[in-house]
Amino acid sequence: MQMRRSDRQITDPAAIQAILDACTILRLALVADGKPYVVPLHFGYTGAGERLTLYFHTAREGRLPRALLAGSPACFEMDIPGEIIRGKLACNFSQCFASIIGEGTPRAVTGDAEKRAALDALMDHVAGPGPHIYADAALRATAVWALPVDRLTAKRRGS
């Protein structure tokens, strides 16, 4: 997807993966109970480019899982904040950053093998390579979600 500020757009898959690797929180935005809702989540991922899938977990009950079960599209954002750029006037201040914004339709991850693989992707991303051990009771109490990414844009301002 072409951005208005194409001079800031990142299209190199390796550069996009570097942003994914550096971010540990994504902000997931969707409609919950008829109102806009955004929530920060730890995440993991598999694939790259057009095959990118993000994984995250929630409790089994509550506002977020209800919204996810509705099957509506969602969008997400993740970013790496950088240096503040000071200006002589307030309107000349800015900030360096790298960010990814994308869209997809979340789906519940079902089956123990798929759930463990999704949680392994999450744990590998936030805690480093496994092996990761999960208590069976915790697995049963946790809802795991996949977000196959349909579209994304990546952007950088400054270095």
Task: Give the SSE layout.
Elements: E1 9-10, H1 13-22, E2 25-32, E3 35-42, E4 44-46, E5 53-59, H2 63-69, E6 74-85, E7 94-104, E8 107-108, H3 112-127, H4 136-141, E9 142-157
CATH class: Mainly Beta
Sheet with the most strands, sense and barrel status:
9 strands, antiparallel
CATH architecture designation: Roll
Average of per-residue pLDDT values: 89
Helix and strand succession? EHEEEEHEEEHHE
- Which structural class do you get from the secondary structure elements? alpha+beta
Name the beta content range: 35-45%
Q: Would you count the extended β strands for me? A: 9
Radius of gyration: 17 Å
**CATH fold label:** Pnp Oxidase, Chain A
Query: Overall 3D geometry?
Result: globular
Helical run tally: 4
| Total domain modules | 1
- Ranges with pLDDT <50 over ≥5 residues? none
Helix share, percent? 10-25%
Going by CATH, the homologous superfamily would be Electron Transport, Fmn-binding Protein, Chain A
